[in-house]
Amino acid sequence: MSDTANISVTVNGETTAAAVPVRQNLVDFLRNTLGLTGSHVGCEHGVCGACTLEVDGAMVRGCLMLAVQADGAQITTVEGYGDRAEALRAAFVEHNALQCGYCTPGMMASALEYVEAGGQADRAAIREHLSGNYCRCTGYQSIVDAVCDVIEGESA
Amino acid sequence: MKAADFRYERPASVADALALLGDEDRDAAPLAGGQSLMPMMNFRLAQPGTLVDLSALDELRGIKRDGEVLRIGAMTRYVELVRSDLVAECVPLLALALPHIAHAAVRNRGTIGGSVALADPAAEMPALLLALDAEITVQSPTGTKTHAATDFFLGMYDTALEEGELVTEIAIPVAAETDRFSFYELARRHGDYAMAGVAVARRDGSHRIAFFSISDRALRATGAEAVLDAGGGVQEAVAALSELPFAGDLNAGEATKQHLSGVVLTRALEAL
């Protein structure tokens, strides 16, 4: 029987208390306990980026953080970006910046962090920022196009 | 893959953390940023009995200038180093290298002390600290000790850190205006572990060259340093690398590592 710990987290604006097994990682807690299956699980060792989500304002790997470590944290997942990601969502659709969609929640998280930090529409810098997110469908071109578009749209 | 079961503690002070780590019945491991330990636990390469989460130890966080030394708390996250004006001003080599250390989401959690304590042979930080002539402070229940980086990294995931000790601080000499630094690494994907990399520092005509991801640990290339100190050229310095104990890994064999070492050193020296 695993040790458990009581945590209280605010996820997408809603505060939840739960008893979590201490060995459970954050993304499994969000998916399996809270039913927020938007954050995807790929490699489970921090390489693919599919589980990238926001904890206290910073994008992190949901598979490399334990749920118990998120006690007291503000968490935002792809289900909760709301208006913040409206332009990105539209640009992803317009540019076909996804095919299978597996990487998309993590890709959106990393792209959102770049855009909100005031990143420039510089393809090399965008690629560098998104380097921790694997996409096996698009070849990245359309994703970089979408992010550039959002930045250029905001500065226009 | 999921981590095997463990007990979890989040102590509120370094003293409490050291007490937990020193309790032999617990088989405890410290958890810093978790960006290396969590994958190892998910692969079940690491199965600690108790995980001692250091994230509440604010006393181990922060960057401050202390005369001619920059002191960085072990639990300072990479993202804080990236954003620090003090780091950019006092340790330009770190500022050059930080964007190559893992990916943004990993830098948001990963800590300098975690990287130092782990001593991954492919990680940048041990080599950077060798090139910078840094010192590493460790604390045990009986007191603190300071190691020169040169004496700290002993082998693959092996350091001078003893059972029950914690890395608490990294001290780096502040760069003079005339110092020159260079950093170069070759990685298959930006932010991934490098296939080979090098950090170079030049102070008053004296060179320090430290490689990573070419052997079982970060290594200084003292032969190549001597060549450059004596006014020798790049080719001669590269030739002097043959004395290093190259070792292959999953990326490349020994001969490739030796070849790539010459490539990264050449490019780093061109940019110095």
TrEMBL record, chain A:
User: What's the superkingdom here?
Assistant: Bacteria
Q: Which PROSITE patterns match?
A: 2FE2S_FER_1 (PS00197), 2FE2S_FER_2 (PS51085)
InterPro entries referenced in this protein's UniProt entry, alphabetically: 2Fe-2S-bd, 2Fe-2S_ferredoxin-type, 2Fe2S_fd_BS, Diverse_Oxidoreductases
Question: Would the keyword Iron be found if you checked this record's keyword annotation?
Answer: yes
Residue span, 2Fe-2S ferredoxin-type domain: 5-81
What is one Pfam family matched by this protein?
A: Fer2
GO terms for MF: 2 iron, 2 sulfur cluster binding; metal ion binding; oxidoreductase activity
Keywords carried by this UniProt record: 2Fe-2S, Iron, Iron-sulfur, Metal-binding, Oxidoreductase
Keyword Cytoplasm assigned = no
PANTHER family registered for this protein in UniProt: OXIDOREDUCTASE WITH IRON-SULFUR SUBUNIT, XANTHINE DEHYDROGENASE IRON-SULFUR-BINDING SUBUNIT XDHC-RELATED
Q: What is this protein called?
A: (2Fe-2S)-binding protein
Instruction: Kindly list the organism's lineage.
Output: Bacteria, Pseudomonadati, Pseudomonadota, Alphaproteobacteria, Rhodobacterales
UniProtKB/TrEMBL annotation, chain B:
Q: Which UniProt keywords apply?
A: FAD, Flavoprotein, Oxidoreductase
**Pfam families, per database record:** FAD_binding_5
Record domain FAD-binding PCMH-type: where: 1-177
For molecular function, the Gene Ontology terms on record are: FAD binding; oxidoreductase activity
Going by the entry's taxonomy, the superkingdom of the source organism is recorded as Bacteria
This protein's name: Xanthine dehydrogenase family protein subunit M
What species is given as this protein's source? Gymnodinialimonas ceratoperidinii
Taxonomic lineage of this organism?
Answer: Bacteria, Pseudomonadati, Pseudomonadota, Alphaproteobacteria, Rhodobacterales
